[in-house]
Amino acid sequence: MSLVPQITAHVSRWITPPRLSGSSDGIAMPARLGAIITIALGITMAVLDGVIVNVALPSIARELGTTAGTSIWIVNAYQLVITMTLLALSSLGDLVGYRRVYLAGLVLFVVMSVNCALADSLMSLTLARVLQGLGAAALMSVNTALIRQIYPKSRLGRGMGINSLVVAAATAAGPTVAAAILSLAPWPWLFAINVPIGLVALLLGLRYLPLSEKSHAGRFDVLSAVQNALTFGLFFLTFSAIAHQHAWSWVAAGVLLTLVVGTLFVRRQLRQPMPLLPVDLLRIPLFSLSMLTSITSFCAQMLAMVSLPFYFQNTLGLSTVATGLLLTPWPIATMIVAPMAGRLIERVHPGLLGAMGLALFSGGLLALALLPAAPAHWDVMWRMALCGAGFGLFQSPNNHTIVSAAPRHRSGGASGMLGTARLVGQTSGAALVALVFNASPGHGTHVCLIAAAVMAALAAVISATRIRQQRLD
Prior knowledge:
This protein starts with a helix and ends in an 8-residue tail after the last helix. A two-stranded parallel sheet has the order 1-2. Helix content is 78%, strand content 1%. With 473 residues, it is an all-alpha fold.
């Protein structure tokens, strides 16, 4: 019995997190390493679970006795909840602390991963995915705000580079990880694999994620959270209706409802001292320009990434394996360049780095649009690598600028807006692919690549205008 107090005291000392003071500039090593590993593990799970299930949807539909069309909600429910709750959870992080929101998100994500693995019907799996998406939104909403706390100002770019690398790696590895798991075990293991990873992340998080000395004053705005969820939920569903070629009357009704609810939401935010939708941050030119750059570039990325597989398989007659191999140079190049760009931020203006990266990205997209009729694999792969390198050179500096342009006590709002910009851009890009394919079925990929190149060039111009703005280090 005498061992119990000793063990309790030892555990208590081990999980005592590093504490931040108002004048602190990051946390020291090795706590910084433990904290960034915690964030990397959580974001890896959240991103992977957005793409890993796609490969298994046919087998899941068969086992649960549902149709292929209905099974899409296993994916959509997850993405929809993230879109609807990201800003609300980032605002909550500003109020109660980023560490609390992140750790709560980890716990919810792990518990719901178990429920997903044990689900025996489409309804139970979809409900578990809804709550799993809420946990993922908590992880995504404050991850860059935590990185801002963890790293000194002079090395913040390196932290953003690591974050960009993790997101790119998880996105790229999704289909491969899914194929590897499914070759050894049934589909529930796609979710069960999160449990050991999540528990390790939770233990590291309890020990290393920093604890601020005091939280910010204010109350959580429930009405704004509801309006936010409705606005972004309607936005997501409206674009999904476009992508699935629903009746235009439904699309028009969705657009109208989104505009009405969105207008009420924005008007309420303009009256709040710490708005859930950070309209106060959008008044900062450097922040708003970086947000616009992010939305435009992610829209360009999705135009290419969604349309290219159709070209590879339907036009060139390649297999799914060959298609995956041809797509791989893009994320690999991003993984290589993003950390390098994170270090370059310390010496080069992020606006200039972003403009250079987006110009390369636009050139790569245009090169893909100009592919010969029967290209060799290497001819496709260097163009894909050029796109990935350009995107990696842009992404880290842009993320750094979005977070550092906001006051430190608004880091949660900036982090949430960063994720929201990505989701809005990706959703818009996917919907545009559907529109282009319906309007030009014979040349859909070519038109999408041209449109993506134009958007990336526009984003490069927007990024270049930031060079005149004061740099925030």
